Amino acid sequence: MPARVQATNANGHRFSSILSRGLEQDGTEALGIAVAYVSIYGFNYIDKIASKKGIGNVNLIADISDCVTHPNALESALNRGWGVRVVDDEATFHPKFYIGCKNFDSDNNIVDPSFVIISSANLSYGGILRNAECSFIQTRNTLRSCAPAWETLWGMGKKATAKTLAEYQKRFSERNRRRRSDDLVALGVADKMPEKRDGIPSKKAVPPTDALKAASEATSTIAWAGLQSFTGDYTFQVEFPQKAALVLRRLLSSAASSGAIDISCSDGETRKFKFRFYDKNGMFRLNVPNDVPNAEWARSEKAGIAFVEVRNDGGVYFEIMKPGRHLDDIVDHSFALGTWGRTSTRLYGWY
Predict the structure, then answer these.
(1) Rounded mean pLDDT of the chain?
(2) Fewer beta carbons within 10 angstroms: which end of the chain, N or C?
């Protein structure tokens, strides 16, 4: 097949079809991928089509300096037995290079290449299915220069280990707390937002599994919960469920073993809050003083969210947010990162 250049987008040819056709080339028994960014969707896509076509030997190298590549995607690749390397340099590792071959030698160099794709598409939902991309595709003929190119790119990375990914997860969480929710999707950190109506995920939008979450409770410093339900006739008692509860148990219990802690509120005043984690049902209960701004409003309206953040200086901040842009930014951030859940009455999240 002669070399060609192919433009792709969501409404016509997709990059996914280019990849699929490449893997069908005779002699393709192994796959090398060198890209800037990899999302969970991107890993799952390659894993699925490679398995379907009987390709069990995959080597992947990706950038982690920009904190866009998803650590869970790299962990999944390691668990599947892929060779995985990461590049963490000041300059972004930015190729989009896909090469099929007969095998890799003992140094992971290409043996008998069968196809190459040099593209603008990262290994993400956008790159594979949605974005306008452009790719150069070559099969068999004139592939001599491809093997040295792969060797150069592979040599730029360091072997990914469980320790490497654990350290990267912390940096990934910190960096993405500061990004806007729409930027998380545009960059490919998040593959897509849940389907929403009036700002709320539809009933069929299911919270992601742990493998799809972009921030674990072990690295998060923010937790929030809807105020559509609460307990306490006198003190305003807010319950944070599941992973949001684990975030607060880790953050607040380490700062105050007595079950009470001084927290800065939205009016600049510091108040004493009591708290307790319930092992039986995995709930974290925060007793909110009645003079906290918006507490009486939330009690009467049963709306808004309770927001807790442990800041870089170790101080704890609390706010009851009314519906509006600020609240939407917080909730959408969790939607984009996949760090949200729902009970029968309300949403909650962390990041």
Answers:
(1) 91
(2) N
Mean pLDDT for the stretch of residues 229-248:
86
Amino acid at site 129: L
Using alpha carbons, select from 275, 283, 287 the residue that is nearest to residue 240.
Answer: 283
Q: Taking the alpha carbons of 127, 132, 133, 137 in that order, is the dihedral positive or negative?
A: positive
SS3 assignment for the chain: CCCEEEEECCCCCCHHHHHHHHHCCCCCCEEEEEECCECHHHHHHHHHHHHHCCCCEEEEEEECCCCCCCHHHHHHHHHCCCEEEEECCCCCCCCEEEEEEEEECCCCCEEEEEEEEEECCCECHHHHHHCCEEEEEEECCCCCCHHHHHHHHHHCCEECCHHHHHHHHHHHHHHHHCCCHHHHHHHCCCCCCCCEECCEECCCCCCCCHHHCCCCCCCCCEEEEECCCCECCCCEEEEECHHHHHHHHHHHHHHCCCCEEEEEECCCCEEEEEEEEECCCCEEEEEECCCCCCHHHHHHHCCCEEEEEECCCCCEEEEEECCCHHHHHHHHHHHHHCCEEECCCCEEEEC
pTM (two decimals):
0.84
Query: What pLDDT was estimated at residue 147?
Result: 87
pLDDT in tens, 313-337: 889 999 999 999 999 999 999 999 8
CA distances from 182 to 81, 185, 190, 202, 227 (A): 33, 5, 9, 19, 25
State how far the Cα of 134 lies from the Cα of 32, in Å rounded to an integer: 19
Q: For 27-61, write each residue's pLDDT tens digit.
A: 899 999 999 999 999 999 999 999 999 999 999 99
Residues 6+ away with beta carbon under 8 Å from 121 = 8, 15, 96, 127, 128, 131, 133, 135
